[in-house]
Each structure stands twice: as C-alpha cells, then as structure tokens.
Amino acid sequence: MTTIDKTKPVMVTGANGYVASWLVKRLLDEGLTVHAAVRNPEDTRKTGHLLEAAAQGKGTLRLFAGDLLKPGSYTAAVEGCELVFHTASPFIMDVKDPQKELIEPAVQGTENLLKSAMEVSTVKRVVVTSSCAAIYTDAIDTTQAPGGRITEAVWNTTASLDYQPYAYSKTLAEKRAWEIQKTQNRWDLITINMSLVLGPALNPATTTSESVNILKRLGDGELKMGAPRMGIGVVDVRDVAQAHWLAGFTPAAKGRYITSAHETDLLEMSALLLPKYGAAFPLPKRALPKWLLMLVGPMANKLFSRRFVQNNVNIPWRADNTKIQRELGVRYMPLKTTMEDSFQVLIDQGVLQGK
Which domain of life does the UniProt lineage start with (predicted)? Predict the structure, then answer.
C-alpha cells in the first residue's frame, strides 16, 4: 500500500505528449504542483497548451528540460517528488533505423528515469506508460493467448528488431523497468498497458503520435477505396489519463494494467464517423479483401508485409480489460464519442480539410 502526499510535486516525463498532456491537465485541475519534463521548455509551440492548462487550473506548472538519452537529465525534475509518471517514449511505426529511433529511446529513457528515481530518496511510486504492444505483436497473438485473449500475465514473444520493432521496443523497455524495480524496495512500479489511444489531442498541430496519423488516413482519402478489417483495441486518451491518475493515487494499485476499452477494427471505426462526417470526407465504406492486401499491401506500404496482413486482417483482437476496472474503478467512454471528438479536433485545427 503506497499513499502519495498530494502537497508534494508530481513529475511527468514527455509532459507535452499526447497522453501526458491530458494527465498534466488533470493534475493541475486538481491543484497539484507538476514538474513537467520536456525536451525544450523554451519551445512554446510545444508547451503552450500546458501553460494554458496551468493558467486555467488550480495547480502550479514547473517546466524542466529532459532528454531520454541523457543520463541524469531527469534528476532535477524528480527532486522532491513522491510520484513519478514516465510517459515519454516514441510512438512511430515507419522508421529507417529501429534500433536508434525506437529501441534506444524507449529502453535507455526508462533506465535513465528509473536511475533518477533510485537517486532521489523521496520517490515512493513510479507509473510507466507501457503498451499492450509489450503483451502482443499481432491480433492473432491475442486470440492464441491462454483463454483466447491477452491478460496482464502475458508477454510479447513474437516482435523483433526486424518485425514490428515498435512492439519490441515497448517489450524491452517494460521488462527493463521491472528488472530495475526489483533491485530496491523503496518505490513500487505500476505499468499502464494501453491499446491504440485515440481521442482529442490537446496539441494536435505538434503531436507526433501515430494515433493522429491513423485518423488522418481515415479522413484524407488514403483509404477511400476501403479499409482493412484489422483487429485492434482502442481506448480514449482521456480515459488513459484517468487510468494514470488512479494508478498513481490508489494505494493498493499494483502490477500491470491492460487499459483498453473496445475490441474493434478500422472499418468499424470509420463506420462510426460516417453519419456525421461522411458527406464531407472520403471515409472508407467497405472492407478491403485480405487476398488483395496480401497481393498489393507490401508494395503500397512496407508496414503491410504479407506476415502482417496474414496475422492481423480479418482476425479479431481480444483482451481481458477487467483488472483495471475491478481494482482502479476505470470506466470507458463509448467508441463513437472517442472517434467523433478525435476527428473534430483535427478538422478544427486544419489538419483535416473536407470537400
């Protein structure tokens, strides 16, 4: 049982990120002092929404410089904190050098943050933003898991540097976090294992999350001929921020938490947008056949290898999301709300433009 003193500051890495921005806003709204680590605190284009949240909230925002690859760069921000949230990690799929762009930032960033937690004696709990990708690689892995769906007991064994390196990076980073946690007994570790996070970005113009790219592909005509029925889990970014808050401040919270609201696919997600946005945007209305994707997928997009298509298209995604609901009381928004709110923000910001 770990009780966090809310009068002490709370530290957040990657504080201007997609998920972290909502978490920081929640912390500020609740009147807490937030030590927000970002790559460049002077870049108001990327921190302006945090400054605005601080102006509107009851808490205090302190910006710190932090670099995933620089040992010790988080220590100053951790000083005086009992609770640390480590959300910083790249979420990109199309990379040239997966070792340099994904593995090193994810693993070394986790090591550097946790070494700072080891050095600062006030730290009592660390919440790491992990991913369901540390549990599975392809949709077929979820249906082949014990009981026909993934649980917190399952680890990813099929990703590699050559195949789905993002999932591999999340697996290595989370395993390293647990290894480091076991070397001490002052602070406990909790991981939030999210599926695909959608929902309105607080900083849509500057977010680099792959989540925004998926929405853009649905709305910009890239998939107007059809969308693959690719099994995925989806959760709203606001629910993920709430999950982090509860993981941080629930004394009995422990271990890993699958944070996923809906078992869906790209075509179903598009169908939820059609009634409101179908007249103005070329949203996909039919499923692309698997045989066609097997044939042309690898030529059209290097991420759509035959192995990927075989293991994900027309295969459901299954996860047991009951632990976080039972232990932390997390409740999820309807998928239609998530899809419409996500899409509307991109329109409002000019990222997507209709006919």
Answer: Bacteria
More confident residue, 273 or 298: 273
Q: Is the pTM of this model over 0.85?
A: yes
C-alpha closest to that of 20 among 265, 251, 213, 206: 206
Tokens 């009068």: give the residue.
7
129's enclosing H/E stretch is: strand 125-131
For 244, the enclosing helix (H) or strand (E) is: helix 237-249
- Which of these, 195, 208, 196, lies nearest to 351 by C-alpha position? 208
Least reliable range by pLDDT among 90-99, 127-136, 204-213, 274-283? 204-213
Segments in 62-103 forming alpha helices (H): 75-78, 98
Strand partners, 61: 34
The H or E element containing residue 85 is strand 83-86
Domains of the chain (ranges; CATH) run 10-137+145-197+234-260+319-332 (3.40.50.720)
Q: What does pLDDT average to over the chain?
A: 91
Q: Give the tokens for residue 98.
A: 């997966």
Instruction: Kindly report the backbone phi and psi dihedral angles of residue 274, in degrees, each rounded to the nearest multiple of 5, phi listed first.
Output: -55, -45
The structure tokens listed for 267 are 């075509």
**Would you give the DSSP letter of residue 146?**
G
DSSP secondary structure string for all residues of 279-314:
TTS----SBPPHHHHHHHHHHH-TTS-HHHHHHHBT
The most confident of 47-51, 100-104, 317-321, by mean pLDDT: 317-321
